[in-house]
Write a structure and sequence with these properties.
Helix content is 30%, strand content 17%. The chain is of the alpha+beta class. The chain has helices at 2-25, 41-55, 70-76, 116-120, 197-204, 212-215, 227-236, 250-269, 285-288, and strands at residues 60-65, 81-87, 90-95, 100-104, 110-115, 151-157, 160-165, 169-173, 307-309, 317-319.
Length: 325
């Protein structure tokens, strides 16, 4: 009884402190984007939806971008965000003045949306920095997004401020980037209303000696699939990641192309989740996915140990050796 009381009051204290921090700093919970920040097709589309919902038809009062062409800047200021589309892992924003912005976040880019009041008063908090490995230098976190060295682009409206961090690709143009390379060379997009199945099959067969796990990452075959969805798709289809395209039998190929769009659309509709949450299960990284980043944990289906490797494949691959023989 005494232990239960201590546990209860400890939990209440932690909850109180968490709520106090949020209240004191007026932290904008739009940073829920951080949950889906991995730059794969479904997550990119989720981010684009959030940007559109917050800034559509809002007048641009200022834009901050290093070494920006002055004519481009003057045409954006006073214009409005007209539309935003995704092409695989690319985001294309069109302003009412006819200027386009193409963004590809690669593995490091992040978008955040802040209230203008918080931004102007130093209350907009940037994403927490993470140490990727023991040798990397951990730079001190700052509390004011305006002082964050990762900041690459800031778009300011009367009510909202859109900020991009670590953006390796931010390209402004007067031409539609969707009509030229690299976007016009992308393979069919699984999240399009019309997924060109025949074209996807044709592109897959252009290199029959390629591992299927490598082929799924090739954006010129199918666009929008990244490392997470690669592993999840192959597990759900019960296909070994080390199988050559030429060794896929017709049934495997049929299942693969039937399920790829369904899996990516499920991820889009469920905020990056690829596995449904069972009754009484706690929502955690471990329960969000079938195999991705679950190396050493038990397979949800057969209870074998999930494995990972990155010597045969160019990116880390996660799979179940029993389910995906």
């Amino acid at each position: 009884m005494y232990y239960s009381q201590i546990k209860y009051y400890s939990e209440m204290l932690l909850l109180y402190l968490a709520l106090k921090i949020i209240k004191d700093h007026r932290f904008n919970i739009i940073s829920s984007i951080q949950i889906y920040s991995m730059s794969e097709g479904p997550e990119v589309k989720i981010i684009a939806d959030k940007i559109l919902a917050s800034l559509y038809a809002k007048k641009i009062e200022d834009i901050i971008f290093k070494n920006m062409n002055i004519d481009i800047k003057n045409r954006i200021i006073g214009s409005e965000l007209k539309e935003i589309k995704t092409f695989g892992k690319n985001i294309v924003i069109k302003f009412s003045s006819g200027i386009y912005l193409r963004n590809h976040m690669m593995m490091w880019g992040k978008w955040r949306i802040y209230d203008r009041h918080d931004y102007d008063n130093g209350l907009a908090i940037p994403p927490i920095r993470k140490r990727w490995n023991k040798k990397s230098v951990l730079v001190k976190n700052v509390r004011d997004v305006r002082n964050d060295s990762r900041l690459r682009l800031t778009i300011i409206t009367k009510e909202k401020v859109l900020v991009e961090f670590n953006g390796p690709i931010l390209q402004f143009s007067i031409d539609n980037p969707a009509e030229k390379a690299p976007i016009n060379s992308l393979g069919p997009d699984c999240l399009d209303d019309f997924f060109n199945l025949d074209e996807a099959k044709k592109r897959l067969q252009t290199n029959p000696q390629l591992l299927i796990s490598e082929a799924l990452l090739d954006q010129k075959i199918i666009s929008g699939i990244g490392n997470k969805y690669k592993s999840e798709i192959l597990f759900i289809c019960r296909i070994s990641p080390f199988k050559l395209i030429s060794k896929l039998d017709p049934t495997e190929e049929k299942i693969l192309f039937e399920r790829i769009p369904k899996i990516l659309k499920y991820g889009y509709k469920n905020f990056g989740r690829t596995r449904h949450l069972l009754e009484n299960e706690k929502n955690s990284w471990n329960t969000r996915h079938w195999v991705f980043r679950r190396s050493g944990k038990l397979c949800w289906i057969c209870k074998s140990m999930i494995k990972s490797e990155r010597t045969v494949t160019s990116r880390s691959t996660f799979w179940c050796p029993k389910c995906q023989q």
